[in-house]
Design brief:
The chain has 11 helices and 8 strands. The protein is of the alpha/beta class. Helix 1 packs parallel to helix 11, helix 5 packs across helix 7 and helix 7 crosses helix 8. The relative contact order is 0.16. It binds 1,3-dihydroxyacetonephosphate. The site of 1,3-dihydroxyacetonephosphate has 14 residues, from strand 8.
């Protein structure tokens, strides 16, 4: 359960879905559905092609807008990439860093995650850094080691004073898009491991104030059992965030 210090955050990760028209239709339908739920911050992570449209549609609503990735440099000859300056200029407030699909399919490494995190913090973009173990790693009892490695390398060389906006998302890769959600106990244990590593890498105060989201087959029906736990401060939602009613039910049920 989120504390006063850690406000619940529910983030939609739309991945490579939606056209601009579909994105606008979503925001129009979704905003009235969450009107009453001020307990949670709501963020939508959209593809670069949708960002101007979603920022515009979300103006004067409680929704904040995130990119799903960015380069760490301000500019340069990097075809196909998006820089933090470009995101800031659009009115984007948050950025996902190191999502497992980027690690799996686009060679994102712990080291590039660290560079991107430093850049996001330097530019005042709120980073949501994703960590999580593969099924093989869980079955080989390597979960703690993987989470500690991913978290410690991501946070390497970061000044705790500059990291107050940091958000981490624990997304066990075996639970993403599989319908197989981590049990609340598995998720809570993983969040405790990550929080302990933040304490070591940054400071105990930062560990206490950093929000850690759970992601992996989150739906309206399993949100309350996850969000009621002490170390789970919200959710990062893929498939179930594409439909306004389904995503709104997750926001409503996170008020545990
Ligand atoms: P699903 O909710 O579709 O399992 O995706 C989780 C995810 O990857 C969010 O970033």
């Amino acid at each position: 359960m989120s504390t006063n210090e850690r406000k619940t955050l529910i983030a939609a990760n739309w991945k490579m879905y939606k056209t601009p028209d579909e994105a606008v239709a979503f925001i129009k339908a979704f905003v009235p559905l969450i009107g009453k739920h001020g307990h949670a911050e709501v963020v939508v992570c959209a593809s670069p092609t949708l960002l101007p449209t979603v920022v515009d549609a979300a103006r004067n609503t409680p929704i904040r807008v995130a990119a799903q990735n960015m380069h760490w440099l301000d500019q340069g000859a990097y075809t196909g990439e998006t820089s933090p300056l470009m995101l800031k200029a659009l009115g984007v407030t948050h950025v996902l860093i190191g999502h497992s699909e980027r690690r799996q399919y686009f060679n994102e490494t712990d080291e590039s995650v660290n560079l991107k995190l430093k850049s996001a913090l330097a530019h005042g973009l709120i980073p949501i850094v994703c960590v999580g173990e593969l099924l093989d790693e869980r079955e080989a009892n390597q979960t703690a080691e993987v989470l500690e490695r991913q978290t410690s390398i991501a946070l390497g060389g970061i000044d705790p004073e500059a990291a107050k906006s940091l958000i981490i998302a624990y997304e066990p890769v075996w639970a993403i898009g599989t319908g197989r959600t981590a049990t609340p106990e598995i998720a809570d244990d993983a969040h405790k491991i990550i929080r302990a590593q933040i304490a070591k890498s940054l400071s105990p105060a930062l560990a206490a104030s950093t929000r850690i989201l759970y992601g992996g087959s989150v739906k309206g029906e399993n949100t309350a059992s996850l969000c009621c736990l002490q170390d789970i401060d919200g959710a990062l939602v893929g498939g179930a965030s594409l439909d306004p009613a389904s995503f709104a039910s997750i926001v409503a049920n996170s008020a545990a």
